[in-house]
Every structure is written in structure tokens, then in C-alpha cells.
Amino acid sequence: MVAIANNQTNSTARLTIQAEEIAPETTAIRCLDWDRDRFDVEFGLQNGTTYNSFIVRGEKLALIDTSHAKFRQLYLELLTGLIDPKQLDYLIVSHTEPDHSGLVKDILKLAPNVVVVGAKVAIKFLNDMVHQPFEHMVVKNGDRLDLGNGHELEFVSAPNLHWPDTIFTYDYKTQILYTCDAFGMHYCDEPTFDEDLDSIEADFEYYYDCLMKPNARSVLGAIKRMSKLELKTIATGHGPLLQLNRDELVNRYQQWSQAQTKTETFVALFYSEDYGHSDDLARAIASGIMKTGVAVELVDWNNTEPQLVRELVSEAAGLVLGMPSQSDTETKIILSTILAAAHGKQTIGLFESGGGEDEPIYPLRNRFQEIGLSEAFEPILVKEALNRAIEQLCEEAGTDLGQWLTRDRSVKQSKAVDSDLQKALGRISSGLYI
After folding, report:
1. pLDDT in tens, 352-400
2. How far apart, in whole angstroms, are the C-alpha atoms of residue 340 and residue 105?
3. The model's pTM
4. Phi then psi for 418, rounded to 5 degrees?
5. In what order do the strands lie in the sheet with 144-146?
6. Mean pLDDT over residues 276-289, rounded?
7. 29 neighbors 53 (Cβ within 8 angstroms)
8. How far apart are CA 345 and CA 348, in angstroms?
9. Which segment of 40-49, 107-116, 329-338 scores lowest on mean pLDDT?
10. Average pLDDT, the chain
11. SS3 66
């Protein structure tokens, strides 16, 4: 273990840093922020926090996440003592919140040829953050990256945990799952692993309540995607790494999330991560929905299965569909499943993503109206490049849908258009052209 302390002369805050080998060719860099007493405006801390970063050495060299900018000098001094940054092949960004990506720009200066790996939306966010060109690789759920020497990485999509761009990274050689914020806690202590459950469980639950509980359905989705992986360690972005009490703490996440979702009103929102502007439009609509207190379950057409879709659609209060490519046979199966599971008590919204080969929107609109679904907003049809006006329109559409779902039932009925008239209007090709 390497430990470096920094007694700041201009602050009472105590910052230290340590590095420890946690598995073969794998090093954890832990930045310990002992005296931090608040995280965001509403998140009071009792025991400080840590920011965790990881080095994986195969035939190629990868860095998973960086750290908070307040650790710039300490972190870069330690990192350059452990590796030659110019030899860095990949920088994996689990998500772009500044406490984990605050030193990305510094890494790009030290390693100008590094390939930045992240979800599509993460790469977009980074472009806005670093203001310089960089090599990048967009990954989605199930994609793999072979570092050599047995270190084959698989990426697990985990949107909304707790940012929209979150991905987990699993190393098949070490059976470590790098989860960034998920399963973490704001808890600062020198032990690298979860040695004392009694001392950390209050902070673990508080962290879940503040950050993960609002996205409980997404938590359950991530846990399901994790279930096929053999885990030895969950390497979190905050607090100790979970190893000794790993199963117990994951089970608590699952139980808390299941309890939360039993009575939760939510919208199932279907989109295509790599087709047209589908993911950008979906996230804007989701943002508007969540402003009303309604939860959103994002479902990628290309990364789901009929049984899961059937369960989601049958339980959802509302549905939003981004038109997939009509040339994709797998999505047609999913679409048929949605139509079979949808029912007349639900609200629907549709949008085209501008991919060029979108599934026709109006015949599908008619079919949902024939089932009896109410339309929360007119179809959104994107015919040009995205801009702020389009994003705002999508947010407002999402808010309209969320407000519809949270209104009193009698108010909904009084404002609803007569069913027969609604079906007739559905055959008129009108929509929100942008």
C-alpha cells in the first residue's frame, strides 16, 4: 500500500490518498476526503467520503475513472509513480459526474493517445466538458474489450444509477465488477474492503435512500443484468469495496428496491441507443416525466427480451415508444409483445428519432388507440439536427405525460377526448414536426 497525506495550509480539510493491489494486475487508488460534510446541497455526510479509481494491467493498460479535482496534485503524483501515463491505452469513464471525471482532462494531457471508453451519452457529456478532441470508443450493454493476459472486460448498462450515462465494467479474470456510484457509500476509512458491516451499514442505507431509491426500478434492472456474472468483488466509486459482505449488501439493494417499486407509478420508455437521435430524445422525455415525480424505466429495443417487456408493460402506467428501425426483425417481436401487453388504462406517447428507416408511426398510433390507450402528447417527429428547442419540446412532452398520470382519475376523464373521436383523429397524419 502507498499512502500520501496532504495537510492543506488554506483549509481544515484533510485529504489523503492510498493505493493497494486488490487482485492480480489490479490496483485501487483511493482518495480519502476525511472532513467533507456535505455532498450536493441536500446530502449531509457524517463520515466524509472517498473517490475510488482503478488500474488494470493486461497486455494493454486501462484506467477506470479518475477522481475529484481537489485531489489533482496528490492523484497525478501517485498515478505517475505507478504507471507511465503515456503507456495508457484506455480510460474507462463509468459516468461523467465531476467527482469521478474531474481529472479526465489532466489524463488526456498526460496520455494524448488514450482511448476514452464510455456510454454514448457519456462521450457526449465529455465533449462538452473537456473542449478538445480525443479518441473514444462508445460501448453498450454486453460489449467487450480484451486487454489481454486474461483481462477481458464486459460492459453492463446501468442508466440512472445515478446518472443517465452510467456503465458498469466487469473483469472476467479477477471477477471484479466496477460499479461507480451503485452499491457505494459516503464513508471514509483506511480499510479498503468492507471489514466491519456494523460500522458501514447506516451510511450504506442512507446513500441508497438519497441516490438510488428514486431510481429503484433501474436498480432492479442492473441487478438482473449483473446476475449472470460470477462476482468476487464490487469495486465501488465511493467508500470501501464490497467483498466480505457483498451478497448481503446487494440483497439489501434488491429488497429495498422491490419494496419501493410495488406501489410506484412508472413509465416504460423504449428507445434505441445507437439509432438516429433516439437516446437523446428519450432522455429528454424521461427528464420531463421525472420532474413530476413519476419514475421511468428506460428500455433499449436491442437489449431486452420479450418476457421482461411483457412484465414491464403490464405494470406500467404509461408507455413511450421511440420508433425503431423497421429493418430490425428482433424489435418487431418486442413491438408485438408491447401491443399484446398494453391495456386501455395506460397513457401513450410516440416519437420518431430521425434514423431514416423508422417504423411507421401513425399505423402504430392507430393500433394503440384501438386498444384504448390515451395519448399524452402528439407524435414527435424529428426532421433536422438536434438543438435545445427540440430537447425542450421533448421535456415538456414528458412533463405533460407525467402530469396526466398524477392527476385525479376524474380530472383525466373530464379532459379525455371521446374514444370514438380519438380513434378517428388517430387516422389523420398530424404531429409535432420540428
Report:
1. 987 777 788 999 999 999 999 999 999 999 877 788 899 999 999 999 9
2. 49
3. 0.79
4. -50, 135
5. 144-146, 152-157, 167-171, 176-180, 233-236
6. 90
7. yes
8. 10
9. 40-49
10. 87
11. coil
- Distances in Å between the Cα of 388 and the Cα atoms of 356, 392, 426 are 21, 6, 28
The amino acid present at 323, given as its one-letter code, is M
pLDDT at 403 over 60: yes
Q: What is the mean pLDDT of residues 27-55?
A: 87
How far is residue 254 from each of residues 220, 226, 246, 260, 417, measured CA to CA in Å?
Answer: 6, 12, 12, 10, 40
**Distance in angstroms (rounded) separating the CA atoms of residues 343 and 33:** 51
Burial zone of 366 (CB within 10 Å; 0-12 exposed, 13-18 middle, 19+ buried):
middle
| Cα-only R_g, the chain | 23
Indicate the residue type of 434. I
107 CB-near residues (< 8 Å, 6+ apart): 63, 66, 85, 88, 91, 114
Tell me the β-bridge partners of 325: 358
Please report which helix (H) or strand (E) contains residue 381, including its range. Answer: strand 380-381
Instruction: Record the cell numbers describing residue 269, joined without a space.
Output: 420508455
Q: How far is CA 28 from the centre of its chain?
A: 23
- The answer on pLDDT for 155 being more than 90 is yes
As a whole number of angstroms, the distance between CA 141 and CA 175 comes to 17
| DSSP output for 303-348 | S--HHHHHHHHHH-SEEEEE--BTT-HHHHHHHHHHHHH--TT-EE
- Of 402, 178, 190, the closest CA to residue 288 belongs to 402
Torsion angle of C-alpha atoms 330, 335, 341, 343, degrees rounded to 10: 170
C-alpha cell at 205: 442505507
Provide the Cα torsion 18, 22, 27, 31; round to 10°: -30
Higher pLDDT, 216 or 205: 205
Q: Are strands 26-33 and 14-23 parallel, antiparallel or unpaired?
A: antiparallel
What single string gives the DSSP state of each residue in 77-141? HHHHHHS-GGG--EEE-S---HHHHTTHHHHHHH-TTPEEEE-HHHHHHHHHHH-S--EEEE--T
Q: Which three cell numbers stand for residue 328?
A: 430490425
Q: How confident is the model at residue 1 (pLDDT cuts 50, 70, 90)?
A: low
Which amino acid belongs to residue 106? Answer: D
- The answer to whether residues 38 and 81 touch, using CB atoms and an 8 Å cutoff, is no
Residue 12 has pLDDT above 70, yes or no: no
Amino acid at 174: T
Q: Which residue has the cell 445507437?
A: 274
Report whether pLDDT(421) > 50: no
